[in-house]
Amino acid sequence: MKHIATLLIAALASACAASAVEQTPSAPRLTVEQLIEIKHPSNAMWSPDGKRVAFVWDRAGISNLYVADANAGGEPKALTSYPNGTIGNAFWSADSSKVYFARGGDLWQVAAGGGAPTATWTTPAPEANFIPSPDGARVALVREGTDLIVRALADGKETRVAHDDQSMGGASWSPDGLHLAFSAGAEAIRHEQTPAYSGAKIIYTITERTPSQTFVVAAGRGKPVAIGTPGGGGLRWLDAKHVVFDRTSADFKKRTNYVADIATGTTRVAREDIDDKFWSITGDAGAGALPSPDGKWIAVVSDRDGWDHIYVMPAGGGEGVQITKGKFEAWRPAWSPDSTRIAFDANEPERPGVRHLGVATIGSDPAHATIAMITSGRGTNVSPAWSPDGSRLVYQHTDPQNSADLFVIEAKAGAKPMRLSSSMPASVDHAMLVEPEFVHYPGPDGQSVPGWLYVPKGLDKSKKHPAIVWIHGDGVNQNYDGWHVQRNYAVYSSVHQFFLQQGYVVFMPDYRGSIGYGKAWRQGVYMDVGGKDAKDAWMSANYLKTLGYVDMERVGVWGLSYGGFFTLIAVTDQPTLFRAAVDVAGVADYAMYYEDPYHGGWTASRIGTPEQNPEVYKNASPLSHVDRLEQPLLILHGTADVNVPYLHSVRLVDELLAKGKGGLVSFMVYPGEFHYFTRAQVLRDAWNRVDRFFGQHLKGVSSTTH
């Protein structure tokens, strides 16, 4: 008894000492309320005179319109101050005096210098997809989802130019303003489910969407001409008589860029990429055919040489020229107004989480293109957009101390950027924020797996500390050198800084399948989803073992979506490796995921169908071995999730209960919330809930943060 008492006293003293180290802050910590206040800018738009940049600023799912001085910077001016809802497709007036925007089914306008917004017009029927004509005198819009209307801004005179009984997509104007391209005919077919494990009183829906057909019609009314075969939109104007569009085959093995004649609808292939595995370039890369403003060239992003690079080909036909080269990924090309240059963003060899802006000068011959990098230093710079005179670029920047903000820079090497926005609340001390270290560790087959290590500032490395492994979602995504570039994942960058200030070590693996590392790494999941890629993720714990200051008895794991899927695999494949886990809207079973028409093609491109590859699907089913769960699991899911339907978590919980694991499981449902948490009440509850959960299981204390 005396020996046991001595051990208990020693253990208690050790726990108190560890708790004191982990909970004693050197400065005021971040709070959840501060995290909610961090905004995210998007849709930056130059005014036609190049003097201002308008943009949408989102705070916890509420968006408003702002304008910044593109010459002097300074605090952006709020043009709207709505307490709820969102701002739709905004655009400048031709004279730069006002900004139009969609809200509540109507078109609104507000003076660029400020003032109360007013409705441009109102109609009983809801309207959407407002697109201005090239001269700014008219607007194309979709009314009631079935009519394509052209309306004059000056006098309100309007013409219905097309109708479809099923659906009408947004339109785009030809360069001369004489024609409109649009998509129509897509049908949403509602399927209902009432699985026995949920009960007949609750109905879950799956929406099957049939493909739309693209058309071109005269803006003054005429007979629409079908362009290509059904398969979605994505059409861009090459010149006043031709359009370009892209199609990916159903098995994702062929990506084709087409040019079509609007008079006849006939098409020709401009370029084609064929892969024996699958087309794997992320949708964020802007990989589609992009015509130059003068109609002479078409730029595309292709991974033909194993890395994502920009190619330029003559619009009239002929082989393309590879503009960027090297072991890095170049994305989001943007033509200058004079068609002689292409701006883009690219990471650096061996530095996948850092992205910089470059400008390729094409001149009159792509074969002699030269490249100048415009930005430098630490951080991630993306999505360049040219000023009307082609002298400057507006872009988004993030880094370890800053969430996403807008900057302007001259389009030449050595230029100094100017900040347009400050998205973090003034109460956040940027010096408190932790920078990551880029590291590698061996995966299951010996391949080197990249990851990002965050160590709290001032951490006493002579002692052991708890750690959290974060697994990003989407499969085709990545971690960055600091804040994530996407709002959907930037909120997780925020909450990890919150955890770091509480003494947690944080690690983020970029498992195979992640972007930023070339085609071979992305395609490493082929016929092996939930196999080596999932092991890459949970084997990050092996790296943590090499750090003498990490307590391997107090390591947690969590992830969103695909990351939630990997979290479930981790805690069932390795039941004792992680002390606690949080699954945020994770896939519970890939056979179930394949059944959803929204995702079937994506899944089949990587692992075929359940009938073709039953063993692969068995591998990709955490649901089939939840009986192995031994540690606490928290599940968070929104009921309006279409990316990973809420039913996945319902079925998961039912199976956990059937296997006698109910005592280990906590489940929080967020009514009306989507896949990526946005609303303040959801973020507040989710972050505090995860904080309490990890605090209880990794520190043995209840969190006092609220």
Short recap of the structure:
17% of the residues lie in helices and 36% in strands.
Task: Give the overall silhouette.
Answer: globular
Evaluate the radius of gyration.
Answer: 26 Å
Query: Strand percentage, roughly?
Result: 35-45%
Class by SSE composition: alpha+beta
Low-confidence stretches: 1-25
Helical amount? 10-25%
Largest sheet: 8 strands, mixed
Mean pLDDT: 93
Kindly report how far apart the N and C termini lie. Answer: 41 Å
Please give the CATH class of one domain: Alpha Beta
CATH fold group of one domain: Rossmann fold
Secondary structure: number of strands:
42
The total count of helices amounts to 12
CATH superfamily of one domain: Alpha/Beta hydrolase fold, catalytic domain
Strand order of the largest sheet: 35-36-38-37-39-40-41-42
